[in-house]
Amino acid sequence: MDLLLNTLLAQLKQFPPARHYRVAYSGGCDSHVLLHALVAIQDQFPATTISALHVNHGLAEEADRWAAHCEQVAAGLGVAFQAVPVDGLGEAGESPEAAARQARYHVFAQQMAEGDGLLLAHHEDDQAETLLLQLFRGAGVRGLAAMPEHAVFAKGWLGRPLLGLSRQHLRDYAKAAGLNWIEDPGNQSPDFDRNFLRHDIIPDLLPRWPALTRTLARAARHQSAASRLLDEQAAADLQAAQGSRTGCLSMGVLNTLSRERQDNLLRYWIRQQGGSMPSSVQLQRVRNEVVSAREDAQPQVGWADSMVRRYRDDLYLVSAKSDQNKGEFLSWDLKMERYLADGRCLKLERRPGAGLKASLQGRTDVSVRFRKGGEVCRPLGRKQTHRLKTLWQEWRVPPWQRHKIPLIYVGEEIAQVVGYCICEPWQANADEAGLIITEQV
């Protein structure tokens, strides 16, 4: 027991401080050990509260009984308990394992408060299984790093403090402590890839390679170190390849890099912007069809909910979802913020001598519209009216973004192109109250 307690304490001291440790508690042996051990060393973290978070997938007949068992155990340990029911079936054609995992982590993220630490009971054997699964999927370095010991998550972070201990270490602790845990029959089914590895493949390899799980876990750590090094290189390349607009990549710089560095940078850039990861084939299409295209072309490659597009020398990552604002017409009295169909919000701030005339507040002919074609306006300081299309080109706004930019109308005249210009004659004079309109995503 001392080995596990000392390991847990040492690992927690390496993680960031947390006001609250939330233990992902299924009721199985591993998570029960983590919860019990954490309570045992609680005096080492007097400023941190502990709670158990149970996700009830509802897939087994005993699911509610398991939740009740978990609640009883948590009460006996003196920690707060929360059970959250989810639909664990997932979409048609989706892997049951992937659907369940996604549902769990969605719940975990929802429950996290600022600065919380989510603790997971994964151990060395789990890490070895994860590495093998990633190998069979043809994963790259980042995938072969398997499960990180620590990572930023939701409003806080997640940690796996028992990752350096074997499954047997946890079983020995559970027996020594007299713990009573749930055995999920689903964990025996060879229909699930991880169970197949655990029960049918790894046991046949252990007689030949007794240290197999430890060796595989060590290999995952090597891949994790290599992944961090690749990220450092990508971060430096991203800094050098900043495009003319925020979040874009410069094609000129990207094309000076080797193919391997291009791929590394593209993956890092997509990940940093929250896009879904492309497959190797999709990434090759980005290189061949977008990066290598002529400057006057406007190619695009999409996958899942993401799309890479090019405009002039800039590479953009955009959402592949259809535009929800198309054709939208919203009346607006300019007295309070206005939400658009896609969830964006137009915010108002009063400021003397800046923005639109505040005297427009309360008028019934003010509206929010979006580009249809043929619009004209006279930006503040210009001597003549310009076609909006010409201004878009001058401002280097990509064609696919132009119809998403809110236009503030007074009657049938454009008074403001949000984020770009105020139009004559609707600007607030120096001695007038003004309204600053900004867009918040």
From TrEMBL:
SMART domains listed in its UniProt record: TilS_C
A Pfam cross-reference name: TilS_C
GO molecular function terms listed in the Swiss-Prot or TrEMBL record: ATP binding; tRNA(Ile)-lysidine synthase activity
A biological-process GO annotation: tRNA processing
InterPro entries documented for this protein: Lysidine-tRNA-synth_C (IPR012796), Rossmann-like_a/b/a_fold (IPR014729), TilS/TtcA_N (IPR011063), tRNA_Ile_lys_synt (IPR012094), tRNA_Ile_lys_synt_N (IPR012795), tRNA_Ile_lys_synt_subst-bd (IPR015262)
UniProt keyword terms in alphabetical order: ATP-binding, Cytoplasm, Ligase, Nucleotide-binding, tRNA processing
Coarse class of the protein's main subcellular location: cytoplasm
EC code(s) of this entry: 6.3.4.19
Annotated ranges, domain Lysidine-tRNA(Ile) synthetase C-terminal: 366-437
Cellular compartments per GO CC: cytoplasm
Catalytic activity: cytidine(34) in tRNA(Ile2) + L-lysine + ATP = lysidine(34) in tRNA(Ile2) + AMP + diphosphate + H(+)
Keyword Nucleotide-binding in record: yes
Name of protein: tRNA(Ile)-lysidine synthetase
